[in-house]
């Protein structure tokens, strides 16, 4: 008994010396949905998760989960996870911003933080945050936050600071326009800049409202977005052009920004000075207003509401060419095509091995038949052949450079826009020969990255994880052996290729000027059902071809185009397959009636996704397409 | 007559004289195109593309059917039957015991099945390498093929012992037996069928358990129990038929 007491007395102080159990991190989450709690229904929107740690440092994963599919979409509901790893110091806070795109707002958004000793999760009801129309973002550093006539309950105006600008262009999907008033863009990151620019060229709208603090507008960060060069202020006794359109401005002399147009056109000008300037940027638009609408006398002007409403109105939906078909049917045909299947199936080598094996066995049998081999030698020879052929064949077919883990096929359709721009729709497919995870990264300048769910698989297999760092989403996807996933994304890029059709009395001349830096190969034109092979058009060259004039009303319709396209042939069977089933599918026949059509292949294809993995083989196709008016036919 | 005379006789007739080469030839001639064409085989539904995914499975199933079938025919002494000494003479004149005859026949069946599996092995190994099948699975498949060859082949010996002098009866019996087992097992419980089991195993699919006599039998247990019983039943009937040849 006494010995026990002595032992306990010795051990007790030692126990006191042991370090105490590490206190658990205390994590709280603060979530901001959309732009200050508002987003447009049915469009991707940003969420900001601020993680506050009041305990010791902790490293963990912030995760947001939304559900897509389900119900009327004919695809079982599946989760989409957005993740980011954060290291949060003691008594510190950090935030993660994701762009989420839930299939519906009836399911809550689930956010959480998981780390050693810390696990927090909360559900957010999205139904309290959506509006039916796109929102208008006001980017300002002044206290000016109300633009008369712009903000309505259905179409709210949200004032944000420059650092709140999203780093992912997809987050702008539910934004009608970004209004700039006395902003400083010096502090915004490269990713934020790139996202704003990508959204703009892909169809966004920026409205730059001038200010008496003109120096802000001379900053390079802001100046690169403006269609004018601001040099100072200019005084006007009256603004008759503006008065004619929007009502008489306040009496007396007014000061407006003095600017010269760098690109675009003046919509309203006073005595040679531009007041309202519009410029196209890809599919998007920039509008500049020289007057300071936030300060007197214009802040009290009755015409301000009408003017602002007009300036910030969402750009009219431009008529887009039909999108390329990209689904399981198209991709199945691609996979079955020899040109693609030879990328991952060593068909020739396999056939050679089979024939070789049969020949060796035949030779053994022949030797035995000619009594050149004793039964024992025949047995040994047979075993040797089986062993050697099995093992050598196994090593040959499973060697590192033999069959790749995956194949990435990218098919990019470039539809010509005015001003030498093209709208690039990239369709990609990642096909795996083994069960493994892949990281798919989105290239800079591309947006609307969308992994397409498959109807033929279980709903859970459509699930994926998006890891977002610096505004460039990276998709982590698990594929089974011999399985694939399809993706879509888009961009607007510069590719100045001009196509003109000159109509004369008895002939037509198709003239194509390739002013881009890329060669066009295998070019064709279809005019009123007539096809014309134009061959290759190298960069910087112009090619003209004549075709006889056919005044046949029946040749104008879509059927004639279909028959015209049927006569187009390429050496590469994959190109032919893409042309017929993806770029000009049967169901889009009527869309092409009444216009001339020019198309060709780009040698170096721009692409939106990459898989940084040496075990993945890549094949890219880029197809340029331009529709042009044909005299006497409806465009 | 030394023990193993039947084995040596079988080796002599089937291999040394080459009468069994017909079976090997048929196996290779049928299997090689199936394996090669399986690479391009489109799915029934254009939207569900399966070709290389099912490449190894199709090859394995074809090999299983061919090995089991030709194993049965070789055991049944369908190739050059006149070259084999009748069992009755072995048992009554040469005074071999049924156990000695059975031992010889079993050794010959093992050898013939092994040769058939070895002949198919390179094609299956290459198919497995292309389809990215782990080598462990390939080895398991080769062993399963040998197992099926024995389980079905023993019924060739049964037919031989039961109707030695009625070649046509034997031929009809083993074909009817093989087809019946394939159909009935599929109707009763798919994983009991070797084709169903192989497809389930290679497809990494969860096979539904068998509910029988109020108990749940896992697919693997049901499959192997059935095949062991099939083998055991065949061996027992074969041995009884040999004993009957000696008479009371």
Computed structural class of chain A: alpha+beta
What is the correct CATH architecture of the largest domain in chain A? 3-Layer(aba) Sandwich
- Oligomer kind: heterodimer
On the 0 to 100 scale, the average pLDDT of chain A is: 82
Cross-sheet strand order for the largest sheet of chain B: 1-2
Chain pair sharing the greatest interface: A-B, 41 and 34 residues
The chain-level mean pLDDT of chain B equals: 85
Largest sheet of chain B: 2 strands, antiparallel
CATH class of the largest domain in chain A: Alpha Beta
Compressed to H and E, one letter per element, the order of chain B equals HHHHHHHHEEH
Total of domains of chain A: 4
Radius of gyration of chain A: 32 Å
Question: What distance lies between the first and last C-alpha atoms of chain A, to the nearest angstrom?
Answer: 105 Å
Radius of gyration of chain B, in angstroms, nearest whole number: 19 Å
Overall morphology of chain A: flat
Low-confidence spans of chain A: none
- CATH topology assignment of the largest domain in chain A: Rossmann fold
Short account of what is shown:
By secondary structure, chain A is α+β, with helices and mostly antiparallel strands. Chain A folds into 4 domains: 27-130, Sandwich (Immunoglobulin-like), CATH 2.60.40; 133-311, Class I glutamine amidotransferase (GATase) domain (Rossmann fold), CATH 3.40.50.880; 347-398; 493-628, no CATH class.
Commentary on this structure:
The complex is a heterodimer of chains A (635) and B (248). In chain A, β23 and β24 (472-479) form a beta hairpin. With 635 residues, chain A is α+β, with helices and mostly antiparallel strands. The mean pLDDT of chain A is 82. The longest helix of chain A has 23 residues, at 347-369. Chain A contains 11 helices and 33 strands. Chain A folds into 4 domains: 27-130, Immunoglobulin-like, CATH 2.60.40.10; 133-311, Rossmann fold (3-Layer(aba) Sandwich); 347-398; 493-628, no CATH class. Chain B is mostly helical and 248 residues long. Chain B has one domain. Chain B is built from 9 helices and 2 strands; from the N terminus they run ααααααααββα. Chain B has helices at residues 5-16, 21-38, 55-75, 87-93, 98-130, 135-162, 167-188, 194-202, 219-246, and strands at residues 210-212, 215-217. In chain B, a hairpin with a 2-residue loop joins β1 (210-212) and β2 (215-217). In chain B, α6 crosses α7 (167-188) and α6 (135-162) runs parallel beside α9 (219-246). Chain B starts with a helix and ends with a helix. The chains are: A alpha+beta (635), B mainly alpha (248). The A-B interface holds A 328-329, 332-333, 335-336, 344-347, 350-351, 353-354, 357-358, 361, 365, 368-369, 375, 378-379, 382-383, 386, 389-391, 393-394, 396-398, 403, 433-434, 456, 481-483 and B 11, 15-16, 18, 21, 28, 32, 35-36, 39-40, 42, 46-53, 115, 118-119, 121-123, 125-126, 128-132, 135.
């Amino acid at each position: 008994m006494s010995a026990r007491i002595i032992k306990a007395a010795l051990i007790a102080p030692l126990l006191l010396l042991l370090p105490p159990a590490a206190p658990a991190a205390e994590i709280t989450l603060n979530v901001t949905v959309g732009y200050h709690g508002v987003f447009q229904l049915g469009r991707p929107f940003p969420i900001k998760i601020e993680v506050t740690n009041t305990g010791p440092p902790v490293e963990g994963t912030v995760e947001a989960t939304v559900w897509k599919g389900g119900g009327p979409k004919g695809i079982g509901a599946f989760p989409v996870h957005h993740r980011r790893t954060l290291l949060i110091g003691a008594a510190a806070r950090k935030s993660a911003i994701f762009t989420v795109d839930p299939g519906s707002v009836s399911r809550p958004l689930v956010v959480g933080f998981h780390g050693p000793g810390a696990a927090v999760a909360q559900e957010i009801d999205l139904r309290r945050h959506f509006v039916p129309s796109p929102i208008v973002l006001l980017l300002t550093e002044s206290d000016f936050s109300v633009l008369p006539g712009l903000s309505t309950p259905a179409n709210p105006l949200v004032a944000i600071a420059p650092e709140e600008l999203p780093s992912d262009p997809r987050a702008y999907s539910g934004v009608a326009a970004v209004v700039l008033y006395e902003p400083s863009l010096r502090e915004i990151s490269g990713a934020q800049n790139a996202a704003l620019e990508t959204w703009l060229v892909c169809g966004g709208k920026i409205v730059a409202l001038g200010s008496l603090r003109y120096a802000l507008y001379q900053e390079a960060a802001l100046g690169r977005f403006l269609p004018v060069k601001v040099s100072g202020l200019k005084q006007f006794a009256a603004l008759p052009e503006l008065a004619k359109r929007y009502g008489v401005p306040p009496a007396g002399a007014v000061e407006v920004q003095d600017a010269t147009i760098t690109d675009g056109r003046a919509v309203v000008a006073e005595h040679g000075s531009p007041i309202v300037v519009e410029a196209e940027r890809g599919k998007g638009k920039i509008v500049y207003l020289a007057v300071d609408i936030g300060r007197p006398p214009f802040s009290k002007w009755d015409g301000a509401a009408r003017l602002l409403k007009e300036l910030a109105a969402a750009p009219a939906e431009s008529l887009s060419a039909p999108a390329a078909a990209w689904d399981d049917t198209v991709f199945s045909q691609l996979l079955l095509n020899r040109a693609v299947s030879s990328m991952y199936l060593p068909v020739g080598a396999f056939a050679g091995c089979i024939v070789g094996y049969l020949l060796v066995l035949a030779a053994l049998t022949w030797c035995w038949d000619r009594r050149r081999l004793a039964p024992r030698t025949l047995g040994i020879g047979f075993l040797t052949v089986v062993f050697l052929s099995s093992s050598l064949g196994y090593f040959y077919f499973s060697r590192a450079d033999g069959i790749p883990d995956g194949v990435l096929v990218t098919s990019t359709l470039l539809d010509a826009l005015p001003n030498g721009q093209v709208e690039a729709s990239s369709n990609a497919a990642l096909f795996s020969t083994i069960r493994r995870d892949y990281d798919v990264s989105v290239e800079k300048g591309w947006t609307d990255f969308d992994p397409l769910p498959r109807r033929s698989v279980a709903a859970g297999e459509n699930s994926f994880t998006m890891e977002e760092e610096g505004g460039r989403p990276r998709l982590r996807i698990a594929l089974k052996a011999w399985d694939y996933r399809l993706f879509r994304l888009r961009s607007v890029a510069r590719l100045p290729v001009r196509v003109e059709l000159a109509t004369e009395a008895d002939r037509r001349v198709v003239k194509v000027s390739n002013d881009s830096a890329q060669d066009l190969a295998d070019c064709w034109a279809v005019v009123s059902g007539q096809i014309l092979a134009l061959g290759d058009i190298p960069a910087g060259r112009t090619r003209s071809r004549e075709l006889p004039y056919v005044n046949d009303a029946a040749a104008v319709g879509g059927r004639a185009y279909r028959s015209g396209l049927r006569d187009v042939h390429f050496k590469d069977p994959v190109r032919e397959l893409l042309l017929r089933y993806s770029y000009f599918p049967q169901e889009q026949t009527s869309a092409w009636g009444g216009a001339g059509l020019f198309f060709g292949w780009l040698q170096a294809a721009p692409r939106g996704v990459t898989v940084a993995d040496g075990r993945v083989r890549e094949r890219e196709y880029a197809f340029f397409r331009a529709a042009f008016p044909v005299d006497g036919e409806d465009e | 007559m030394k023990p193993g005379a039947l084995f040596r006789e079988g080796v002599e007739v089937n291999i040394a004289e080459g009468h069994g080469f017909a079976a090997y030839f048929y196996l290779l001639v049928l299997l090689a195109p199936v394996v090669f064409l399986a690479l391009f085989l489109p799915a029934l539904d254009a939207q569900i593309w399966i070709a290389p995914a099912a490449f190894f499975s199709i090859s394995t199933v074809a090999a299983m059917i061919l090995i089991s079938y030709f194993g049965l025919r070789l055991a049944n002494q369908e190739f050059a039957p006149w070259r084999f000494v009748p069992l009755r003479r072995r048992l009554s004149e040469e005074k071999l015991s049924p156990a000695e005859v059975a031992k010889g026949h079993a050794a010959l069946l093992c050898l013939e099945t092994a040769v058939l599996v070895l002949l198919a092995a390179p094609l299956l190994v290459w198919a497995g390498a292309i389809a990215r099948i782990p080598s462990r699975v390939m080895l398991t498949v080769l062993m399963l093929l040998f197992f099926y060859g024995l389980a079905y082949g023993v019924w060739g010996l049964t037919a031989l012992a039961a109707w030695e002098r009625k070649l046509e009866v034997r031929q009809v019996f083993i074909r009817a037996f093989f087809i019946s087992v394939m159909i009935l097992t599929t109707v009763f419980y798919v994983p009991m069928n070797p084709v169903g089991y192989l497809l389930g195993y290679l497809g990494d699919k969860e096979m539904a358990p068998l509910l029988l006599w109020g108990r749940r039998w896992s697919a693997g247990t049901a499959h192997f129990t059935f095949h062991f019983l099939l083998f055991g039943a065949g061996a027992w009937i074969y041995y009884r038929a040999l004993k009957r040849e000696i008479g009371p």
